[in-house]
Amino acid sequence: MRYVKLPKENTYMFLERLKDWGDLYAPVKISEKFYDFREVDDVRDVEFHYNRTIMPPKKFFFLPREKLFEFSISKAEYRETIEDVKPFVLFGLHACDIFGLKILDTVYLDEFPDKYYKVRREKGIIIGISCMPDEYCFCNLRETDFADDGFDLFLHELPDGWLVRVGTPVGHRIVDKNIKLFEEVTTEDICAFRSFENKREKAFKYHEDWGNLRYLLELEMEHPMWEEQANLCLACGNCNTTCPTCRCYEVRDVPNLDGDTGYRERRWDSCQLRSHGLVAGNHNFRPTKKDRFMNRYLCKNSYNETLGLSFCVGCGRCTYFCPAGISFVENLRRILGTKEPKCPPEISEEIPKRGFAYTADARGEDL
Ligand code: SF4
Ligand code: SF4
To answer: What is the DSSP string of 351-364?
Structure first.
């Protein structure tokens, strides 16, 4: 990997130069407490120190609402309406959000590529920046707190600038075209990078092993947490829309008043809404709020075979933006037994161990 240094005094010039590569979007403070990715005109509006945006970067690739095609019944024809997508630069993604996109890639690109998602992924340049966790972050437990790939450039904060990792040929070209803005990395920079990473590691609130969580969730279907917390849930769907890896959508046809033409669109859906599991014949696969609540926890903690990670990247949005004050991470810790152990102490201590040890042992299998 190539490493260069961007001195602090060149940061805004660098952001200006990024506009040569497409429309620039970056985290911007939109109210006292909230940040969001917005198109940036004045680069001094870019926020470098934020914990999470309201909407994750998925909104640039998997649009909240998207027209798929227009149709005419009388002519028995349809016309695809995929827009001309302009190149764009998405600046300021944290590692967890980069992993969020990598997870969406496995869904929307790997087996049956989704052309609407694909064209935007091809047009988007990704630039990451380092961050310091707050009490809602648990990406360290999900192993998504440091991105090895999935970005064109990644900026790590130094006291006097940024240590930049170059991740792709596009990243090389951006650096090469603006080489006068960069310097070589010095020994002091490496020490500052190490120091930042050590401080970041210590700043995480949780330091425990969640390797067995997905099995325990399946085993603990009768745990009182489910009923109790599902009763608090307002079924608003905020946790889905703000999640960087939630990807469900619904499709509907919108007829025009002429009774002949219309268009088909897709829009984000939420598994917390009653309509999500409703099918023809008025059958609902998840008729109760508890069914839907449990489904989200099981889905987010299931295993992405391609990446070897869970579908939750630990960004903390679903807790931070939940109007009912439901803490996803604390509920998971209840299931793990780290908050209210229900097994004898020597067994409770076993629970946080990584991997198959606990379940394989319970089945009497060799490890
Ligand atoms: S954000 Fe909170 S209240 Fe809304 S659906 Fe999710 S868990 Fe329920
Ligand atoms: S489940 Fe919650 S913490 Fe995990 S990635 Fe989604 S919003 Fe973030």
So the answer is: TT--TTHHHHHHTT
Quote the CA–CA distance of 28 and 42 in Å, as a whole number.
11
Sequential DSSP letters for 33-77: S-EEEEE-SSGGGB-SS-S--SS-GGGGTS-SEEEEEEEETTTTE
Read off the pLDDT of residues 230-253 as tens digits, 9 standing for 90 and up: 999 999 999 999 999 999 999 999
In whole angstroms, how far apart are CA 101 and each of 18, 45, 60, 261, 345?
Answer: 21, 24, 10, 35, 40
Separation CA 54–CA 66 (nearest Å): 20
Please answer whether residues 268 and 64 qualify as being in contact, where contact means their C-beta atoms are separated by less than 8 angstroms: yes
Closest ligand, as measured to the CA of 138? 2
User: What are the extents of the domains in the chain?
Assistant: 2-203, 213-362
Name the pTM for this structure: 0.91
Query: What is the residue type of 286?
Result: R
Contact 89, 53 (CB under 8 A): no
- Report the separation in Å between the CA atom of 4 and the middle of ligand 1, taken as the mean of its atom positions: 43
Run of H or E including 243: none
Whose atoms come closest to the Cα of 97: which ligand? 2
